[in-house]
Amino acid sequence: MRSVMRALREVCVRAHVLSRTGVCETSTSLRQGHTGASNMTGGEGGLPAAHLDGEHSWMCGSSAAVLSAVRGHVRVLQNFISEEEEQAFLTELEPGLKRKRYEWDHWDDAIHGFRETERLQWGGVCAAVVERIRAQAFPQGCPLLGPVHVLDLDKTGFIKAHVDSVKFCGSTIAGVSLLSDSIMRLVHEQNPAERVDLLLQRRSLYILRDEVRFKFTHEILKDEDSYFSGRRIPRLRRISVICRNLPH
Ligand SMILES: O=C(O)CCC(=O)C(=O)O
């Protein structure tokens, strides 16, 4: 148990401090964005134009090229769990989480305002959801990390841009978001102007695979930076339930 927790702590090994100004933070209306590539200019920061993915309303990026680069490697399934299933997770997790304090000084400075746990055994409703996440995200027979990682971000907490450790993480990460909508931002490591924002609605499942895992950083934006294509997305306390596969 201890060693799994240590390994998960080492997940966030390459934290990058990125500009807080994001691709979707201007005030263009969502409707305008949905008409296709919008003409969002970045205001003072001179940001590149932002594009909403025509097919996936939960994804927007700095260019059509970056959207097509990530398209096959990212999925967000809205309403993946029901309100009752969300409540079952909270009932199971809250007593243990409440005994912990939010931490503000992660050793590698990647996560702020969080508490975490991991769990191998789940009660009936949650066990069924975990099975559903795994069936959706991983091919049959794929070696999985047994314990599920649970990350509880305070309303003022956030996850800075990082690339997960290839030593501890496999090709895929799949997470369900409880309690709050949020924005996950992906930034190309070699070309930081290339960015994609994912709208992770409460009770959605996101799946990141392959290139997106290792060529892009990912982060969860803090409340004051939480905009999707110009639309304010309030970031409340958020709990993520995260399944991973093992590295090759
Ligand atoms: O909370 C989340 O969904 C993201 C977690 C994360 O960034 C990670 O585990 O590498």
TrEMBL record:
SUPFAM superfamilies: Clavaminate synthase-like. GO terms for cellular component: mitochondrial matrix. Keywords: Dioxygenase, Oxidoreductase. One of its GO terms (molecular function) is dioxygenase activity. The keyword Oxidoreductase applies. GO terms for biological process: DNA damage response; fatty acid metabolic process. Its cofactor is Fe(2+). InterPro entries: AlkB-like_sf, ALKBH7-like. PANTHER family: ALPHA-KETOGLUTARATE-DEPENDENT DIOXYGENASE ALKB HOMOLOG 7, MITOCHONDRIAL, SPERMATOGENESIS ASSOCIATED 11-RELATED. This is Alpha-ketoglutarate-dependent dioxygenase alkB 7, mitochondrial. It comes from Clarias magur (Asian catfish). The lineage of its organism: Eukaryota, Metazoa, Chordata, Craniata, Vertebrata. The gene is alkbh7.
